[in-house]
Design a protein that fits this description.
Structural class: mainly beta
Number of helices: 5
CATH superfamily of one domain: Immunoglobulins
Largest sheet: 24 strands, mixed
CATH class of one domain: Mainly Beta
CATH architecture of one domain: Sandwich
Number of strands: 66
Shape: globular
Helix content: under 10%
Distance between the termini: 67 Å
Radius of gyration: 29 Å
CATH topology of one domain: Immunoglobulin-like
């Protein structure tokens, strides 16, 4: 049975009871006093043939884990104490019928001095010019791609190689021709790897670390585990996996740990419950920082997840299964004093069947997206939090808080300041989305209803930004939203006079604060227009100078009927890095007959450029990846995009025409569009039409022979002063029909 969330208010009461229960259960409670034995590990002075005493320590944590599990079977709780150092190993524990519920702790003797590494030190590099070469023993190939409905996944997304020079990560490229300072290329065919290290690097003494282990700590079903003061880094997990994983386990405490520079995710809980993650960080991971799947009673306290999804950004893969926090099927969890900054993805993303979540004291700033609540039945409550400078790409339907087909969301005493384009948004699918509760099997049809906004500060920076966005969820979706909305005692501030976008009276309508009050009958005691300064919580600084290379083309671009595909690129400077990035392209030779050009050859590190790829009439149909390379000194960033060459017989000379100023009620000189049938059979023409203020005549007739052309003449006759636009539409038998040409002109007064 499918329940419509708007009508099943009794469920909200049930959820409220669940929240109260959650506060009693929603965390780890490991009794460390039951740990009566200690095992010592010293990677420099120990031996795995030792008994693991303080005087005769073990060498590896993995051996200590085996002994601790054996002690556990004998009814002894154990603390594993690890001396400072780097431990290049993979640790695995699993529950069996002989295991007890006694606790095991893995902790650094001194917090922050123990590194569990997925990488090994490599030496003996041979040199030729700027490149250093080493034999490559691995044949990993591409990781498995996600099945549909996942978007296209570029090859770079599916790679797992990682190399660090003196602790700095090198950027992976997929061909020799793409190499720039700060990059590496693995040639599996020749079993070789090449590095172009940063200038000034002495490779004879440099620390070169090559990632080779996908998992650093894996707990399968063993409960009552503590990780404390440890760093897990350089795992080369495939996308969808994590450096540290807890599966089917309960009563887990992760305390003051770090998950850094891993190829995919840092820390992942799946089918787990009663866990606490506190005072921990998950920074610079290629996909996700922290992740959950089908969990309950999680407690996140004072955790930080910054600079994540760099691997995804190399493939313009910013949102699908990404996020500094990515939470699926997460029930009864608390998030207190969480920080997510400068992620090339969402700050926190609740994705599907999330309920009974409370977020307090959250700071989300300068991420590609802010807090996304998607397909979640709630309740989800956000209080005393700050959302600033998110939506770095300026996406038209994103902002600070994005509610997508989610119910019973409460935002109270939060500050939304200077998020690009929008502060609070509604998105989703008309008619609702069915979601099944994994615990009780109930299915809900989720729409955006029962949103509560209370005591928030919602402020834009600039005159074109909006405080609220819902451009298209009209009809019953708007009715469901507005009749269940509770909004009051908020402070709304914007540079423009109509910063509320609503889907009534038509999609994309803009209205004022008073118009918003009239439409919603809400915000009666709210204030409008108060000047708001940047909150101190939003004055954040990146940890190192860097820059991002981004594209707004999140899906492949189909070449137009004029044979061109354009990609919009932008760079984002971090920590005040100045200068410019030189642009180049790799992979163009794989598109027969294609050429490419940039609008600028070098772009500022906070700038915009356009890549145009032009194809010939002989270019075979298909989808072709190309990689944009941006180099600034020793930093190289890449973004791979794809162009689709359609199966078509139609080629137009242009896809847009602009007419100069023309006096009203006079007719311009004609401009022409040439239609060429590049196919091997005749092309049937059904109609050629144009809208108001423009006229057309043509000699195409009802059919254009193979390899022949015809001409469409267009004139501009403005009927009013202004800038009329219209479209030339050609309907024919080609699969790309209808083909269009955008027309623009300027009408002048007499």
């Amino acid at each position: 049975m499918i329940f419509h969330r708007r009508s099943v208010l009794v469920l909200f009461s049930i959820f409220t009871v669940a929240i109260i229960t959650h506060f009693c259960q929603g965390q780890a409670n490991v009794n460390e006093s039951l740990e009566t034995a200690s095992i010592y590990v010293d990677g420099s002075n120990g031996s795995d043939s030792n008994p693991g005493t303080q005087l005769q320590p073990l060498r590896t944590i993995g051996k200590a884990a085996s002994l601790a599990m054996r002690e556990n079977q004998q009814g002894v709780g154990t603390r594993v104490i690890v001396s400072p150092g780097t431990y290049p190993e993979s640790i695995s524990i699993s529950h069996n019928s002989r295991q007890t519920k006694l606790p095991i702790t893995f902790q650094a003797a001194t917090a922050g001095t123990v590194v569990v590494s997925g990488a090994d030190l490599w030496g003996n590099w041979s040199v030729s010019g700027n490149l250093y070469t080493h034999s490559w023993p691995y044949q990993w190939g591409n990781c498995a791609a996600l099945p549909p409905p996942a978007p296209l996944q570029q090859e770079i997304l599916l790679r797992q190689e990682r190399i660090f020079v003196n602790g700095s990560p090198m950027t992976q490229v997929l061909s020799m021709s793409a190499m720039q300072p700060g990059t590496f290329f693995v040639d599996e065919t020749s079993a070789m790897v090449k590095i172009w290290p940063p200038s000034g690097t002495d490779m004879s003494s440099a620390s070169v670390e090559v990632a080779s282990r996908p998992s650093l700590f894996n707990d399968q079903s063993q409960s009552n585990i503590i990780l404390r003061g440890l760093t897990f880094q350089y795992a080369n997990s495939c996308r969808g996996a994590a450096a540290v994983t807890f599966s089917n386990a309960s009563n887990i405490l992760v305390d003051s740990d770090s998950f850094s520079q891993n190829n995919a995710s840092g820390l992942w809980f799946t089918n787990a419950q009663n866990f606490t993650v506190q005072s921990s960080t998950a920074n610079h991971n290629g996909q996700k920082g922290f992740a959950t799947y089908k969990v309950k009673y999680g407690s996140w306290q004072s955790d930080t997840a910054n600079y994540n999804n760099w691997r995804g950004a190399q493939a313009a893969f910013y949102t699908f299964d990404s996020g500094s926090f990515r939470l699926f099927l997460d029930h009864n969890s608390t998030f207190n004093n969480i920080v997510t900054l400068f992620n090339q993805t969402q700050g926190i993303h609740f994705d599907t069947d999330n309920e009974n979540a409370t977020i307090t004291g959250y700071v989300s700033a300068n991420n590609l997206y802010g807090l996304l609540l998607e397909k979640s039945q709630g309740p989800i409550t956000v209080t005393n939090s700050f959302f600033c400078g998110n939506n770095v790409q300026g996406q038209s339907n994103a902002g600070g808080l994005d509610v997508r087909n989610s119910t019973f969301v409460t935002s109270s005493a939060n500050t939304f300041f200077g998020n690009q384009v929008n502060q609070i948004t509604l998105n989703g699918i008309l008619g609702g989305i069915p979601v099944t509760n994994w615990e009780n099997g109930e299915t809900y049809s989720l729409t955006n209803d029962h949103l509560t906004l209370s005591g928030n500060v919602v402020a834009t920076v600039g005159s074109s930004s909006r405080v609220f966005y819902d451009s298209y969820l009209n009809g019953t979706a708007w009715t469901d939203f507005v009749t269940t909305l509770s909004s009051d005692k908020n402070t709304w501030s914007a540079g423009g006079s109509t910063p509320f976008m609503v889907p009534t009276p038509r999609n994309g309508s803009l209205t004022s604060f008073s118009g918003w009050q009239s439409l919603t009958l809400q915000d009666i005691h709210s204030t409008w227009g108060t000047s708001v300064s940047q909150p101190a919580k939003c004055a954040v600084t990146p940890d190192a100078p860097d820059f991002w290379l981004l594209t707004s083309n999140l899906t492949p671009v189909t070449a137009s009927t004029a044979g061109q595909a354009t990609f919009v690129l932008n760079t984002v400077s971090l920590a005040g890095l100045t200068g410019s990035a030189n642009l180049s392209i790799d992979g163009l030779s794989a598109i027969p007959g294609a050429t490419a050009s940039f609008s600028v050859s070098s772009m500022p590190l906070s700038g915009t450029a356009v890549l145009t790829i032009s194809i010939k009439t002989t270019t075979p149909a298909g989808t072709y990846p190309v990689t944009v390379i941006a180099n600034s000194g020793n930093l190289t960033r890449t973004a791979t995009v794809s162009v689709i060459v359609p199966q078509t017989s139609v080629r137009l000379s242009t896809t847009s025409l602009t007419f100069a100023g023309q006096t009203v009620r006079t007719t311009s000189t004609p401009q022409k569009v040439t239609l060429t049938n590049i196919g091997s059979t005749a092309l049937t023409i059904t109609s050629i039409t144009v809208g108001k203020n423009f006229s057309q005549s043509n000699n195409c007739g009802s059919m254009v022979s193979a390899r022949a052309s015809c001409t469409i003449n267009l004139t501009f006759s403005p009927t009013w002063v202004g800038t009329p636009t219209s479209t030339l539409t050609i309907v024919d038998a080609d699969p790309t029909s209808p083909e269009t040409v955008t027309l623009t002109g300027t009408g002048l007064a007499k």
